[in-house]
Specification:
The complex is a heterotrimer of chains A (331), B (520) and C (628). Chain A is α/β, with parallel strands linked by helices. Chain A has 14 helices and eleven strands. The longest helix of chain B has 41 residues. Chain B is flat and about 85 Å long. Chain C starts with a helix and ends with a helix. In chain C, 42% of the residues are buried. In chain C, 58% of the residues lie in helices and 14% in strands. In chain C, strand 12 and strand 13 form a beta hairpin. By secondary structure, chain C is α+β, with helices and mostly antiparallel strands. Chain C is extended. Classes of the chains: A alpha/beta (331), B mainly alpha (520), C alpha+beta (628). Chains in contact: A-B, A-C, B-C. At the B-C interface, helix 8, helix 10, helix 11, helix 12 and helix 13 of B face helix 2, helix 13, helix 14, helix 15 and helix 16 of C.
Chain lengths: 331, 520, 628
């Protein structure tokens, strides 16, 4: 209980650092979901400009925003990736620490996919069914057909990422929380932490090494796996995604927003560093260019679902104009 | 400036070596045998002292004075009042509150729009749900904390301005402070550089004038050299001490956060320390390490099932049966196994052994996990084979030939001799080799990180996925979690691992000492 | 007096012989177990070497497409490279003109390569151009755009025989990673009828399609197995549902719902069972009509310079297909002039689709594909693209790390060994030091990593006279740098070096010391002038072996952040970098299959370094070691 105000305690970690040299390399932290895209852009940026290749670290969305908001100066990162929008609390933390002038940028979309092996029949689930099957505070059934008779009579076994991963975070937020609210209502869920996942073996933490989940799914066609869309896309020859609320997890459905379990991916730029750490705007320009994150850009082959044409150009204009966040985004 | 001073000290040391040496030569007046020590020892004596005094001064003063300046700068802000004030009606209420229930009662009626306090209250309520209302409650003065943060921010900014880096904001206060800092910093650098250089110069002069015919320069410098050697040997102690202290320190901090529910850690069967990470805390119910310990020992046990029979029999065969040619070929081959990096074994386990075992299991109708304990254990066993075989080889060879000859003389066959004479004689050594092997398996990281699972699973079935202590440490440290949260459990696991392996080594050593047969 | 005859009778008796045989058998058994143990250990070594070696060999070469690239006359114009909206940003110093121009020139180079690449094919529909370009690596532009920026090529220039790198999937296809096309030669003629819309009817005169047709039928059996399994599951569900219905305590509503579900289950089960039966029937009866889907094996017909993918069998010799590569004519093809190609895996189970296969076969047929040694693997840094990733960054990182490790561990280790062997008095304190050194040697490496993390990178605060002082965190700036990794490895290697150095110092015979001391040398002189030089070969051997261990170590370096994506090759000990074993760990995690091959090759490179170091140690020992 020593750290009562967690917000404030975090701010206290401002390092009164020693003699830091000027930095000539962009530092990026943040979400592991955006990581593959950010590294691809970083690599491209390093090759096509005379700047050094940025250092990209995967720290999770929350961890990344925390580092990002810890202050201004070369010891703090210039850009953070997030698989969710910055929260009002985090924005406040930023301004408390003197990080004023944060530019928000939408990278594209990502979907959470529940998939099983190609050798098994394709499933069709609703968010409510998933919640009933997996919630710690739910009915905790053994077989899928106990959730709903229309589902196959097989054991519930879902292989998913451990709590240290950002995909898990998104899964809890987009599937479990929504499902809970649909089944039990908002207040009940808040009170009982309805988004928690059961820990009695129905949900198996299979680690972040997603490759092994895929081979495990192939070995056990009755199991389901939880992935980000980009990874699912890479392995489309081995696994198939389940329909959620009747919508298949395809590129088009996620891009149009029909697929219910999708989210926007963001990155945030520290305006105070622009012009101080060399190359930030060129990097942002590369990231937001049509050739990268636009329709048909190279990030698409990495599994990113791009913004629509008009969204993309609006976003690009906003970012290249260095439009700051005002703090009213959450009202 | 400081760098220049350090360089100057090095130059000075070289110079004084030359001067000291030539002074010694000249004071010998042509017959060097009159000197107690050879001229170069006089030079060495001067140079060593000059160098040591100068460098040590720079290091010590450099660290101390920087901290002094920063605290001095902080002192200028003593009267500074934070720009944004926290609502203090709630804060005042929290003063002197003893437990969580009281704290919530005290915050009753605080308006919800006071974001920070409302947030605080929700936090406390959540903690109460986990730990019960009577749990200890401590608070710090939030207002003071806020002011402290802003003060640090201002100082950080000022230093940034002074050093030409990026500040978060530039205003008059910061510019003034920066100016002040710059002056002080310059002063500090000149002072330290000058002081160190002066001290070095003084030492140089003193030592220089001590150069004389009877001066025992050699003995003096040798004493200094011996001292340096001693310090190097003591590095081992410093390292051990550092490891123990840092692990203990973090472990204590972690247990303190867990309300000292140490038994939850040692006897709990539920390991998911990050299940509450979104809320930013760890619940003591989630830190039971038994599943990890069980997984670690299951993999270790499988590894030993592979390594001990193969390693031991290989050692026996090579020492008592094999022709010199076979021995010359097989022994280096086994040693190659020992030299392969563990990450290679991990890759081997993940892409070859694990799928192989899974397919084998499927062909006989068993449901084998693709990250089964069996795969990791077998590969770890392969890694430990050379370890066991070379240690066993040593102890088997240490059994004197006379014992063998005696046994053969009585008509025993080779196998009988080995079983009834050599193995019993070598047993303590073999047991200690096995224990050392266990200790290695327990601490092994890469194989299990790449081939074992991450789900803490309390099971007896080696075909299922288990996780180990080392896997969890790696996952906690390199995973996507905030370091503040994951460091505690990781270091606590590290400390536990340290204790386990050290105990195993200690036991192995004791067994050898206690039961060793002395033949001569 | 012993009766010798009785004794000798006893030893020649049947019982004794039997006993002797038993003993000899047990002797042989024991020996056999020993041999088996050795064979098992060697078998493990061989299978490890084989697994890694067979993968690594396939990563030794890479595939390029050689094309002549011509740049348009209006290319590489500096005046139009910068867009209008970028000008103000350049003036404000936010963007740099140089970078914009570089990027623009690179884009133009890439467009030129892509255009040329597309032109190699016999006709690619507009909407499939993107798919063709995915066969080309995104890194194919790297070398050429550098050349353009250096001014080697300009507008209007033609680059002869430019080797454009293919993408990882294409590479993998040529390496046989997706199975290869099985060609069947043909005995009869083939008639073609254009149905329009890209579809063609085929009529074979002889039974040339019997083999592919059998393959398709075989796949039906596999499909039937899966459907049957689903049917069994559904049957189980029916059973459960019936059980629920037998429960008397159901409310009316629940009963209706359950009955509904039961009906649905029964219908579904019937459907599945029927499907399975019909699949089996189709598979077992000859001839008949079969439509090929994504899940069937692929059958391709190479005829008249084009390629047709079979969609439908109307009997064994009459087929319908769609054109994947345009045919020169719809004329009848004489026997032997056309070929059938089969791919066993279904299209949906491959990352390379049938269309890609056709394109890749077309390139090969035109002789444009060349395979060449994969030198970039050794010379390039890390990359997210499997076909571009190289180990040079790891090698350089390992080099710097080893430099730091050596610079710290060697002098300290040797000096500590000298102290303990030559100067230390036998007392409890030196005993304590020895115990510590032995313990350090046994501590798991990951603990050293934790120690390094805390002491060098994160640091911790301890209360100190009312305030707080921070202990550790001295090297925060050097996260992921060779500097920090080297320190951690040095602490870990220190015990090895100390133990080896002590053994070598001890091996120097006392007579040398006595002689030196007898001639009036001091203890320090004796040690540094006589003992140490004689012990040096042994010390170096021990040090090299310790360094080899450190070179292969991964776990502690993970703790200090030396695993991650570092595309730039480090230039010193302070740059963030990765090391060879960490690269192996990192790559083994990637989904791209080509990375698996590259990981194996990286392991081979790492092992080569280790073997080189150990060989050096052996040579040193053989060459310089003196027996006293």
């Amino acid at each position: 209980m020593k750290k009562l105000g967690i917000v404030l305690a975090a701010a206290a970690s401002i390092a009164v650092a020693g003699e830091a040299a000027a930095r000539d390399q962009i530092r990026i932290v943040g979400s592991s979901t955006v990581f593959p895209f950010a590294t691809a852009v970083a690599e491209q940026f390093g090759k096509s400009t005379s700047y050094k290749t940025p250092v990209v670290e995967s720290t999770g969305s929350g961890g990344g925003l925390k580092l990002f908001c810890a202050g201004v100066g070369v010891e703090h990162p210039d850009i953070t990736n997030a698989s969710r929008r910055m929260k009002a609390k985090e924005f406040k933390l930023c301004s408390e620490n003197g990080v004023e002038g944060v530019v928000e940028n939408v990278v594209g979309y990502d979907g959470i996919v529940l998939a099983n092996a190609k050798s098994a029949p394709q499933l069709s689930l609703t968010i409510e069914q998933v919640w009933n099957a997996l919630a710690a505070k739910g009915p905790k059934p053994t077989n899928w057909n106990e959730v709903d008779p229309s589902l196959p009579a097989v054991k519930i076994e879902v292989l998913g990422p451990p709590p240290s991963s950002g995909t898990r975070d998104a899964f809890e937020e987009l599937v479990m929380e929504e499902g809970c609210e649909a089944v039990k209502g908002k207040d009940w869920c808040k009170e009982n932490k309805g988004e928690e996942i059961r820990e009695d073996g129905a949900y198996v933490e299979a680690g972040e090494n997603d490759n092994l989940i895929v081979s495990k799914l192939e070995a056990n066609p009755e199991a389901l796996g939880v992935f980000g869309f980009s990874f699912h896309d890479q392995n489309a020859d081995k696994i198939q995604g389940a329909n959620v609320n009747g919508v298949a997890p395809t590129f088009e459905n996620i891009a149009s927003g029909d697929y219910p379990v999708s989210r926007s991916l963001y990155f945030y730029v520290k305006k105070a560093h622009v012009g101080v750490v060399p190359g930030i705007m060129e990097f942002v320009g590369e990231f937001t260019s049509a050739g990268a994150s636009g329709n048909g850009g190279y990030l698409q082959s990495k599994g990113l679902i791009p913004l629509t044409g008009s969204e993309h150009s609006a976003n690009q204009a906003k970012v290249m104009g260095l439009t700051e966040m005002t703090g009213d985004e959450w009202n | 400036m400081i760098g220049a001073a350090a360089l100057a000290i090095v130059v000075l040391s070289v110079a004084i070596y030359v001067f000291g040496r030539s002074r010694a030569i000249s004071s010998a007046k042509g017959s060097l045998k009159n000197l107690h020590s050879r001229p170069s020892y006089h030079g060495l004596f001067c140079a060593l002292w000059t160098f040591l005094v100068g460098i040590v001064l720079i290091l010590v003063l450099g660290v101390l004075s920087r901290q002094y300046i920063e605290s001095e700068l902080g002192g200028r802000l003593d009267g500074y009042v934070a720009e944004s004030q926290l609502p203090d009606d709630g804060l005042a209420a929290l003063e002197g509150v003893g437990n969580l229930d009281d704290a919530i009662a005290a915050l009753e009626g605080v308006p919800a729009d006071e974001a920070t306090l409302a947030f605080t209250r929700a936090e406390i309520e959540r903690f109460r749900d986990i730990r019960g209302g009577s749990a200890r409650f401590e608070t710090t003065n939030l207002q003071a904390q806020l002011e402290d943060i802003q003060r640090r921010l201002i100082i950080g900014d000022s230093i940034a301005i002074a050093e030409g880096r990026v500040p978060s904001r530039i205003d008059r206060l910061r510019l003034n402070l920066a100016q002040e800092f710059r002056e002080q910093e310059q002063l500090r650098q000149y002072a330290i550089g000058g002081l160190a250089l002066a001290a070095a110069l003084l030492t140089a002069l003193i030592t220089f004038f001590r150069v004389s015919l009877p001066f025992r320069a050699r003995n003096r410098s040798e004493r200094l050299i011996r001292f340096t050697l001693f310090i190097c040997a003591a590095v081992a102690i410093f390292t051990t001490l550092g490891i123990v202290l840092s692990l203990i320190g973090e472990t204590l901090i972690f247990f303190d956060k867990m309300d000292w529910r140490v038994s939850d850690f040692f006897f709990g069967t539920n390991w998911s320390p990050l299940s509450n990470q979104r809320e930013g805390f760890i619940s003591p119910e989630d830190i039971g390490w038994l599943p990890l310990l069980a997984g670690t020992f299951m993999i270790t046990f499988i590894a030993m099932l592979v390594a001990v029979p193969i390693g031991l029999m290989a050692a026996i065969y090579l020492s008592d049966y094999a022709s010199p040619r076979v021995r010359a070929f097989a022994k280096p081959m086994l040693e190659i196994l020992a030299g392969i990096p563990t990450v290679v074994y991990g890759f081997f386990a993940a892409i070859f052994v694990a799928p192989l075992i899974r397919d084998l299991g499927q062909s006989i109708g068993l449901d084998v996990s693709s990250q089964s304990a069996l795969a990791a254990g077998i590969v770890m066993g392969i890694m430990i084979i050379p370890f066991i075989s070379s240690l066993s080889d040593d102890v088997i060879n240490a059994v004197p030939q006379s014992l063998r000859d005696g046994s053969y003389g009585l008509g025993a066959t080779k196998a009988e001799t080995i079983r009834t004479v050599i193995l019993p004689a070598a047993l303590p050594g073999i047991i200690s080799a096995v224990i050392l092997g266990v200790s290695r398996a327990v601490g092994e990281t890469m194989i299990v990180v790449m081939a074992a699972g991450q789900g803490p699973n309390l099971t007896w079935n080696p075909l299922e996925t288990v996780t180990t202590v080392t896997v969890q440490i790696v996952m906690l440290i390199i995973g996507d979690t905030e370091a503040e949260l994951s460091a505690g459990p990781a270091f606590t696991l590290g400390f536990a691992l340290f204790v386990v392996t050290l105990t195993l080594n200690f036991i192995a050593l004791r067994i050898v000492r206690k039961y060793r047969e002395l033949y001569d | 007096m012993v009766d010798m005859k009785a004794l000798s009778d006893y030893h020649t008796s049947d019982a004794a012989k039997k006993f002797m045989r038993k003993r000899h058998r047990s002797e042989a058994r024991f020996k056999a177990i020993g041999v088996i143990a050795i064979l098992l250990a060697l078998g493990a070594l061989v299978s490890l070497a084989w697994t890694i070696g067979s993968n690594a060999v396939r990563a030794l070469y890479e595939y390029d497409v050689t094309v002549d690239i011509s740049f348009p006359q209006d290319a590489f114009d500096r005046s139009t490279a910068v867009k209008d909206f970028e000008r103000p940003l350049i003036e404000q110093g936010i963007l740099s003109e140089d970078s914009i121009i570089r990027r623009e020139f690179r884009n133009q180079t890439r467009i030129a390569i892509e255009k040329t690449f597309l032109a190699q094919f016999d006709g690619v529909p507009e909407d499939r151009r993107g798919n063709v370009l995915e066969l080309l690596s995104r890194g194919s532009v790297d070398t050429l755009s550098d050349a353009v920026l250096e001014g080697t090529y300009g507008p209007g220039d033609v680059v002869q025989d430019f080797p454009a790198l293919l993408s990882d999937d294409a590479q993998l296809y040529y390496k046989g990673g997706f199975g290869s096309v099985d060609f069947v030669d043909t005995a009869g003629t083939l008639d073609l009828v254009d149905k329009g819309d890209g579809r063609v009817d085929l009529l074979a005169a002889a039974n040339d399609f019997s083999e592919p047709f059998a393959l398709v039928k075989e796949a039906l059996l596999d499909q039937a197995l899966i459907v049957e399994r689903d049917a069994r599951r559904q049957a189980a569900a029916v059973g459960t549902m019936q059980g629920i219905l037998e429960d008397a305590g159901l409310s009316e509503e629940e009963r209706t719902e359950a009955e509904d579900a039961l009906n649905r289950f029964v219908r579904e089960e019937e459907r599945l069972t029927n499907l399975a039966t019909s699949l089996r029937q189709r598979a077992n009866s000859p001839g008949g009509r079969e439509e090929l889907s994504e899940d069937s094996p692929s059958v391709l017909v190479f005829v008249n310079g084009g390629t047709i993918k079979i969609d439908e069998f109307n009997g064994a010799n009459q087929l319908t297909g769609s054109v994947l590569r345009p045919l020169s004519a719809m004329a009848q093809a004489p026997a032997g002039e056309w070929r059938i190609g089969m791919l066993e895996g279904s299209e949906s189970s491959r990352r390379i689709k049938d269309q890609d296969v056709v394109w890749l076969e077309e390139l090969k047929e035109k002789g444009l594909v060349i395979s060449k040694p994969n030198w970039p693997f050794l010379l390039e840094g890390d990359s997210r693209e499997a076909e571009l990733a190289g180990v040079w960054g790891g090698i350089v990182g390992s080099f710097w790390t080893m430099i730091v490790t050596f610079a710290i561990a060697f002098p300290i280790g040797v000096m500590a060994a000298i102290y303990l062997e030559e100067f230390a008095q036998k007392n409890s304190f030196t005993d304590f030091i020895e115990v510590n050194i032995n313990n350090l040697a046994a501590i798991p490496s990951i603990i050293f990593g934790l120690f390094g993390l805390l002491l060098l990178l994160s640091g911790f605060k301890v209360p100190f006279f009312g305030g707080e002082i921070e202990i550790g965190g001295w090297a925060k700036e050097f996260r992921s740098a060779a500097f920090v990794g080297g320190i951690v490895l040095a602490l870990m290697t220190l015990p090895t070096i100390i133990i080896a150095a002590r053994a070598s110092v001890r091996a120097v015979p006392p007579s040398i010391r006595d002689a030196a001391l007898g001639l009036g040398a001091s203890k320090v002189q004796t040690v540094f002038h006589h003992v140490l030089p004689l012990a040096m070969p042994g010390i170096m051997t021990g040090t090299i072996i310790g360094m080899a261990q450190a070179l292969g170590e991964t776990a502690p370096l993970l703790m200090v952040g030396m695993v991650g994506f570092f595309a730039d090759v480090s230039t010193g000990v302070a740059d963030p970098t990765t090391v060879m074993p960490a690269l192996v760990y990192f790559w083994s995690d990637y989904p791209e299959k080509l990375f698996e091959l590259k990981t194996s090759l990286a392991i081979v490179v790492l092992l080569l370094f280790l073997i080189a170091m150990n060989t050096l140690a052996i040579i040193l020992r053989k060459r310089f070691e003196r027996r006293w």
